[in-house]
Amino acid sequence: MSRATSPTPRWWLTAAALTSATLMLTGCLSNNPEAVGDDDTSTADAAPAGANSEPGEDVVIGFSGPAAGHGWMGAITQAAQEQGDQFDDVELRVSEGTDDVNLQISQVEQFINDGVDAIVVLPFDGAALTEVAIEAMEAGIPVVNVDREFSSEFAARTTILGDNYGMGVSAGNYICERLGDDPDAVVAEVAGIDSLPLTQDRSRGFSDALAECDLEVSHRVDGDFTVQGGESATANLLQAAPEIDALWNHDDDQGVGVLAAIENANRDELFMVGGAGSANMMREIQDPDSVVEATVIYPSTQAADGIRLARLLAQGRGMDDLVQVEVPREIQLYAPVVTSDNVEDYLPHAFES
Predict the structure, then answer these.
(1) In this structure, is residue 342 part of a structural domain?
(2) Where do the Periplasmic binding protein domain residues begin and end (predicted)?
(3) Phi/psi class of residue 249: alpha, beta or left (left: φ > 0; alpha: ψ in -120 to 50)?
(4) How many Å apart are CA 27 and CA 25, to the nearest integer?
């Protein structure tokens, strides 16, 4: 089976350029839109510049995230802890990971009561954590929102996101490069949890990219982001689709079950593209006998980046590699495709499923 690296279509390059420009613009916005222009203070006076690696004022940062029962989520927390350990001027307080919304709310409330200098939150449910995040902001504690957005822009000073729509686009681009000359190609999709906006964004990006080469998703199931769910959903999909040319699986942890179902069904006519960028899926890419040809990165460094930015916010510093002196309002990370051509570059930094 031949393997090809998907070149990025011109329309996506244009979109990426526009997104970058938008991020630079949103980085200049105040947390409170009504406050912009209220006085004549220049942004140059708002936050001192300086090398971000230089020690600053000692600060305490609280971190709360979901339970690490998922390889990607475990990597998120580990990277955050390691990042905190790198700074002598940071005391990082990590709450026990939980999928209990009420418990996570109480964790953030405890950080507020303790008077920490900044809070980094990857919410189990962004909407449910919005109110307590607003409380922190109103108490003068900058909040960095990671991955799952709050439902109010007033709940966070800075938000760090993966590019869910871009993941779908990257997966679709790769499949278009492989199958774009076959209008009858059968494309399947194993999504995560359909009720989540991030899943909806991934599917929308995938569909939009396939449309560029006149392909569409013929068969689609959701696997609930678990190994068991991925295996069960894929088994059902394979029974319904006797022939498949390409399959995109949204999540590499879930992909362990997806691969098991493919192997149990003795299906080798298809190729598979993964999502998130786990080490085991990258090793599959290295195996010439595997159906896995690629995976799309969804960075597990988001909370670690959140710790870095929370430190700067708590210390009243900006980012020394930007002309704009303030920490940006929003940062969205890129979703590159990993294939046999570049897997050696990404594997050392991948998480284990």
Answers:
(1) no
(2) 61-317
(3) beta
(4) 5
